[in-house]
């Protein structure tokens, strides 16, 4: 393997790959649902991160396993505390679009030390305000699965 050639099968496959090619369906929770219900959703949907949406259905935050565990071990009332109070909030959310490369997505996951990115489309409201519509999620698992399938094809 010559890592400098930039012309290997792996390099070519990766540079062309787009988020829309490997993304998963979105899993979202309303800001108003309880920490308890968010935990239940993580189990039933088998995900580690939820996109959180406002009353209009637009992205307002992201909540991870540890965000929820923090409340559980600090004695917060998981039945009363809404995820909106414990999530990481916009505009501090790292996202990708369906046409972004998976390489860009992977770099964002590493740079920001996170496990998942909401895949979004920008929706401009009549008053000019921009809102993000959640159309999928891209996780480390998607990338690992692609990597394994690529190897399966070549071996
Ligand atoms: P965990 O906290 O379960 O280890 P992550 O490493 O993905 O999961 O999350 C670390 C922190 O970063 C959490 O506080 C979470 O809310 C936040 N976070 C996760 N994903 C994103 C994202 N796409 N954009 C901004 N913040 C995020």
From TrEMBL:
Limits of the CBS domain: 21-78, 87-154
Keyword Acyltransferase: no
Keyword rRNA-binding: no
Alphabetically ordered keywords of this record: CBS domain
Identification of the protein by name: Cbs domain protein, putative
Natural source organism: Heliobacterium modesticaldum (strain ATCC 51547 / Ice1)
């Amino acid at each position: 393997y010559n890592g400098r050639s930039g012309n290997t099968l792996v390099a070519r496959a990766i540079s062309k790959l787009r988020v829309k090619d490997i993304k998963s369906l979105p899993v979202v929770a309303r800001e108003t649902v309880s920490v308890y219900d968010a935990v239940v959703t993580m189990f039933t949907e088998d995900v580690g991160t939820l996109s959180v949406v406002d009353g209009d259905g637009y992205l307002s935050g992201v909540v991870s396993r540890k965000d929820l565990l923090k409340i559980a071990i600090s004695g917060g009332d998981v039945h009363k505390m809404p995820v909106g109070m414990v999530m990481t909030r916009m505009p501090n959310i790292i996202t990708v679009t369906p046409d972004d490369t998976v390489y860009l997505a992977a770099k964002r996951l590493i740079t920001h030390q996170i496990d998942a990115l909401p895949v979004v489309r920008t929706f401009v409201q009549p008053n000019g305000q921009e809102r993000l519509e959640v159309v999928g999620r891209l996780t480390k698992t998607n990338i690992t699965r692609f990597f394994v399938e690529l190897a399966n094809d070549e071996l």
